[in-house]
Structure formats: structure tokens, C-alpha cells
């Protein structure tokens, strides 16, 4: 995963979580939870966690407050490992 990809997916994920929180407050159409988790798994865990903290969104759901930080740790470990190999 290139740096541009990670920054981009984190930004997209952050914005989608923010939009979902705004829609939750207004009673509008919601982003499916599976989509929110998928964005985190696809590289956006940093953006997801930041959005969860800043927007106080999905912080009471174990599926999110357990999964997103674990995925972030795994992604950081993967990036560290790839950097140690000289990839990227």
C-alpha cells in the first residue's frame, strides 16, 4: 500500500463516518455498518478511529470499538514490516 493510497482511504473513511453520524442525527439514510468496517479493513482504520473519537460515532458498539483499533494495529504492523523490507 502506497502512502498516497493510505492517506486517501483514511480521508475517505473519515468523511464517510462523519456523513453517517450527521445522517444519524437527522434521521436520514445511513451507511451500512458492513461498509464502515470494510473501509477500515481496506486501509482506513486510522481515519475510522479518528472519526469515532471526534464525532463520538459508533463508540458504544463492540463491533467498532474492538475491531477498528485492532485493524489499525495490524495495518501499522504491516506497514512497519514492509518498510523494514525496503518496500514502499
Provide an overview of this structure.
The chain contains 4 helices and no strands. With 88 residues, the protein is an all-alpha fold. It starts with a helix and ends with a helix. Helix content is 78%, strand content 0%. It has helices at 3-26, 33-55, 62-65, 67-84. It has one domain (3-84). The longest helix is centred in the N-terminal third of the chain and has 24 residues, at 3-26. The model has no long low-confidence stretch (mean pLDDT 94).
Give the CA-based shape.
elongated
> Distance N terminus to C terminus?
8 Å
Strand fraction equals under 5%
Mean pLDDT: 94
What is the count of β-strands? Answer: 0
Number of domains: 1
What is the structural class? Answer: mainly alpha
Largest sheet descriptor: none
* Oligomer category: single chain
Share in helix:
over 70%
Using the CA coordinates, give the radius of gyration: 14 Å
Unreliable stretches covering 5 or more consecutive residues: none
Order of helices and strands: HHHH
Report the total helices: 4
